[in-house]
Amino acid sequence: MRSTRLRRLMRSASSTRLTKIWNKIRRFVLCAVSSEYVSRQAALRQGECVGCGRCCKLVFQCPFLGGTDENPRCLIYNSVRPNQCAAFPIDERDLADVNYLCSYSFSQPRVTAVQPLLTPVFERQQSS
Ligand code: SF4
């Protein structure tokens, strides 16, 4: 009973497919142009990646994801891993994309009602 309620709560807080697509683009742009925000968020990020591979399957499965379902492995981890992969999760929005099942957390939520960085129109309309 309790786990059903928790699952329902997590589903309602998690991202829609459209939001996940937007957040994928957002991570790419933020890592390309706003290294200050990404660095600031990296300083607030707590925990360690356990290599679950959930962020490698957002919207589509990364072609460089190898290994098995139980033991996923990035095939380019030590060579040409993109910055947006290394920076995941940049903030709470990214955690919502993986239903908060990432081993990272943030010491302070950086997403506010103002949604300062790269907020799409459809998200702004939902929050008002
Ligand atoms: S979802 Fe989090 S813990 Fe899992 S691979 Fe991505 S960064 Fe690592």
What's a concise summary of this model?
This protein is 44% helix and 8% strand.
Our measurement of the CA-to-CA distance between the termini, rounded to an integer number of angstroms, reads: 33 Å
How many strand units?
4
Bound molecules: iron/sulfur cluster
State which percent range the strand residues make up: 5-15%
Approximately how much helix is present in the residues?
Answer: 40-55%
> Over all CA atoms, what is the radius of gyration?
15 Å
The chain-level structural class is: mainly alpha
The averaged pLDDT comes out at 85
Q: Give the total of domains.
A: 1
**Assembly category:** single chain
Helical stretch tally: 6
| Major sheet: arrangement of strands | 1-4
Q: Report the order of strands and helices.
A: HHHEEEHHEH
Could you list the spans in which at least 5 consecutive residues all have pLDDT below 50? none
Shape field: globular
The biggest beta sheet is recorded as: 2 strands, antiparallel
Overview of the structural elements:
The chain is mainly α and 128 residues long. The protein contains 6 helices and 4 strands; from the N terminus they run H-H-H-E-E-E-H-H-E-H. The chain has helices spanning 2-13, 17-33, 35-44, 83-86, 92-97, 121-127, and strands spanning 45-46, 65-67, 72-74, 105-106. The protein has a two-stranded antiparallel ribbon with strand order 1-4. It has a two-stranded antiparallel ribbon with strand order 2-3. A hairpin with a 4-residue loop joins strand 2 (65-67) and strand 3.
